[in-house]
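Hallway conversation turned thread

IA: we were arguing at lunch whether anyone had actually written out DDE Tnp4 domain-containing protein end to end. Turns out nobody had. So, for the record, here is the sequence (255 residues) and right after it the structure tokens. Reply here if something looks off.
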Amino acid sequence: MQYDRSAAGISEIVNYTVCAIDIAWAHLLAFDHNHLLSPSQLDVYAAAIRAAGAPLSTVWGFIDCTLRRIARPSRGQQAAYSGYKKFHALKYQAVVIPNGIIAHLFGPWEGRHADPFLLAESGLLEQCAQHAVQEGSDENTPLEHRYFQLFGDPAYGVGPHIISPFSGAGERTEEELEWNARMASVRIKVEHAFGVVVNTWSFLNSFWKQRVYSSPVGRYYRVAVLLTNARNCYSPNQVATAFDCPPPTIDEYFY
């Protein structure tokens, strides 16, 4: 009654707009090394994370995967089913930087896939090898001083471009426990970024409405991330505040 349109008509308009936004601005969720993820910007993020208490000065962002529950699909149910969460879902890989922006979003993929699968399919580490290089380094620079790194959970392992907590069999030394604790205290600050998205766009929590063969469900979360990033540009969120790392202006973000 308010918009003088049928429910189906409004749904069609929303879906069209969601697709248009995702197509036009998808590059903002890729590894954009000429913009938010340039080497000079990675240096700024690494300094902010270090200042927040991290034991390293080369970590520029935090990688994790998130599952978004959907209605049980009419076909392909097994592919979408997450045995860990016990529901049907779409999965996304995200990288949060200390200014509160989700700077990389890969997906959606079927909920059955593990985090390392998305990491391999995204090609993110290959992009890091090419672009997440510390200024002034060259091929003769030791690997630990050549690249910036992402930080993730133990499932991601350890390499030149990504690190994770000390884990595995055996007891941890006091130094390892302290290192893990310091990184955990820093990482927990960025986990709020996922909560901000779904709390801002509560429709995403209505999983019974997320029907993959009826609507562009996979794009809903992507566009929600873009619009949440935009909101952060106007009013810095709790992640940006915690790291004292201001987000870009709205014009700088939507370039």
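OS: looked through it. The chain has one domain: 7-244.
IA: good, adding that to the notes. Strands lie at 59-69, 81-82, 87-96, 102-110, 149-151, 162-163.
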